[in-house]
Amino acid sequence: MLSIKLAFRNLIGAGLRTWLNVIVLSFSFVIIIWNKGVLNGWNEQARHDMVEWQIGGGQYWQENYDPYDMFTINESHSAIPQEFKNDIANNEMTPILINTGTIYPDGRMQNVILNGIMPNQKVLKIPTEKLENNSNEISVLIGKRMAKNNKLEVGDYFPIRWRDANETFDASDAKVVGIFNSNVPVIDQGKIWISLQQLQKMLVTPNEATMLITKNVDRKNAEVDGWIFRDHKFLLSDMDEIIRMKNVGGSIFYLILLALALLAIFDTQVLSIFRRQKEIGTEIALGMTRWQVVRLFTVEGAMYSIFAAVLAAIYGIPLLALQAKNGFPMPEAADSYGLPIAKAIYPTYSLGLIFGTVFVIFIATLIVSYLPAKKISKINPTDAIKGKIQ
Amino acid sequence: MKKILILILMTIVFINAQTPSAEMILEKIDENMTSENQVVTSKMIIHGRRASRIIESKSWSVGDSKNFTEYLSPAREQGTKMLKIDDNLWIYTPSTDRIIKISGHMLKQSVMGSDLSYEDMMESQELTENYDAKVTGTTVIDEVNCWVINLIGKVDNLAYHKRKIWVDKNKYIPLREELYAKNGKLLKRMELKDIKNINGRWYPTKMIFKDMLKRGQGTEFVIDDIKFDQNIPEYKFSKAGLKR
Predict the structure, then answer these.
(1) What are the residues whose beta carbons fall under 8 Å from the beta carbon of A254, sequence distance 6 or more?
(2) Which residue of chain B comes nearest to A166, CA vs CA?
(3) Residues A280-311: pLDDT tens digits?
(4) What CATH code would you report for B23-242?
């Protein structure tokens, strides 16, 4: 207790030197928590959007389907299993048929992926009800990125060419009946959404699908011959990997920031021990053990982190709360990177994140404070009182 | 009245007797255009939106089944070689020094940015086997009298369900060919021009391919030199020949 009191007095007494260290260290607190909060917020938002727009509660893939192999996509479809019929009728599951095609908006050729989806589905957030169409016309739904890249608007027509299951070319004009706005580029860039029945007719693959998306994550997913169930762990693995990489990249930044703050504390400790040799000698002469003096200096150093935590809380809490409320705006081009990024990311700060950061910085400060103070244990008190440099 | 009716009937019978069957026309085209083998030096002019590119090549072919093409210019394409044997296609690029087999979806890609896909190049010309052909009329193209032949696919796995060919009545040379989608939309048009008599055969020395859904002027294929029935060594049509 005595050493805490002494350490507190010494730090307050040191004035500006103390506050400079505290301010720099408090920046580390706020920036680390903010950065981690932004990444957490992005992760949560991206997962939420992917579940709502792209992956649902999980997916059954036709056994040959590989989204990364464009050469086999046209062969990755088969009849929808009988055991899924009830779930599809109850909107607990929706089938998707995937095939390649080519569109020619304004005479420019572009390869696209054609996705057939039931217009009345309620599994994904895609506004597929716009695909309800009783005429023979091909109605298509596209994302805003696709619309922007191809200068397409609702009501526009463009030629679309595809090959049916027999590899025979077919072509027709398609009408854009809707443009949706989603944060998930995977369902938007290079993708065209058509009514499932219409696409099955176009490809001459009646009642066939490439994948089936389930609504609920808790659904019991039985094994079905020729179909492989992909759960959230599998479907979100790319996103997890990106966040992990971003965390590693961010950690380098934190380390640099923290190293600068800790270096300042280390320097202050070295200077303080050098300048306060007479005080150290006197304290030992008056009966304090060397380790008690070491502890005093270590506590002094570690107390910087407590002061910094308090200071960071004073200006950081309102700042971070404001950010969590208003979000962190992302640049216009961010959504063209192919990652699910919203216009603004709303950081989320968990107690674990805050206390974890405080704990890590406290321990790091304790170590850099102890290292120079350790030297005191070798000081000769007589020489120290004489002011002899050791 | 009766006499007029008989006269009209006789005229129809006479006209029909003058029109050969579509199969016969197609056979005559084959007779005229196919040879045991060919060695062709040609230019492919790809008209882009801003500029045109000219690619020169020399190819050796035996019937429809074997073809070896070497690109001569521009410098970027020089040394690139393509080998087609039946339904297989390999491409060799000197920059990578590797032979790649073009298969599956890759066959649908355009050949060097042209209006032709690898698949179009691979297509076998066995029209009479795969299509029901019928002469549907006559017309005039560039002051040349032509028969118009409609071909409708009789098997399922054809790239184009319907074709239309305009054939020179005198020289038995196709002057135009159109390829249609299953629902009747025109997809590609090929025009054959500058017909010349080469070693007793009538042969078009300029062909224009146009993807009708795409904007632009299409791709021209100009034959600078063509030799028939040459002595082509067998190694030319081997994978080893690609790296020579």
Answers:
(1) A28, A31, A32, A35
(2) B157
(3) 888 888 888 878 888 888 888 888 888 888 99
(4) 2.50.20.10
